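Researcher: Go.
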Amino acid sequence: MSEYQYVHFIALDGPLNQKQLDYMATQSSRAAITKWQFTNEYNFGDFRGDAFEMLRRGYDVHLHYANYGIRRLLFRLPAGLPWDQETWKRYLPEDGMTWHADKQGRGGILELDPGQDAGTFDSYFMDLEETLEEIAPIRDLLLTGDLRPLYVMWLAITSINYDEEAIEPPLPAGLDPLPDCLLDLAAFYELDTDLLTAASAGSPPLPKTAKEGSNVAAWLDRQSKEDLKRLTQRLLEENPASARAETLTLIRKESSAETWPTVELNRTFEELRSSASEKESRRVKQEADTKQKARRAKLKKLAADPEAVLAQIEKLVNERKRPSYSEAAQMLIDLGEALGPDGPERMQAEATRLSKAYPTLMAFKQELRQHGFLKKKR
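Model: Structure:
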């Protein structure tokens, strides 16, 4: 497998101006650059741009993928982390997630960067062009103090590092069901779905305020006309991204509602893995039972009118198409099973009859041989 890299930046809060675009152009000689996005692919060489500075100068989220182990995400939070330090530290895995505070001001960048070798992940990730757009809404959750992104990030990175003694952080409300953007994050880091389901067990319901944004409405109702005028002026004349982020932080801090609800289960990662294994076993058994039930129903239907099935098989043969030949051969197998002990022998005779009735259809005969009906030529 040859080396492949993909980098993607997106502006969420507003388009870049010409000065910002001029800077972005210095970061790569052949990237596709617009006011809203920056993308580049590499089959040889590396991205030499300063991703952190590019976020500070206009873009809001970043993805860097390499098929030899890199799956890096950056989220620009211009008003800083919306949680106190004690809460933030509880969701930090041993490594793989870092907060990079700006040298000046309250802003900074949240970095996810687990794994740096080809064996970290199992599969070659597809659809990279859409991945960052699907994950990007996580930034809005982060800005409002939602703890679900931090929990899913902790779980994904701990799974990659396989720290079996790690104690889970507080379990946030609203993990079941998860927003699509967090499911996309889990998929990007190949987080096992059974593990995610097991970890979500016991998560309290999503608060009504989080569902409806009533904290924002209530806060706006409390503001004077002068305060709203100043806010509007900031949004229109200053940096709208910074103004928006700072306002959301202010709303969260001034809200009379409690911080994001959590429960303390204090499960170890190994306990979560054990629970996930049990769920996987039950799920696999249920899927097998469902498949077997559907198989029995299908065979019962075939046995009820075998002549109609044989007519359908011959119709498929007459379509003169390789997929139709394969389907016809499989139907012979299914009908043989449906008809009981003497069914397979009857279908062997039917396959022989069809091969003689259509002597020139070599592809059909090949399908019959591959399905075990005709003797292979030596």
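Model: The longest strand covers residues 70-77.
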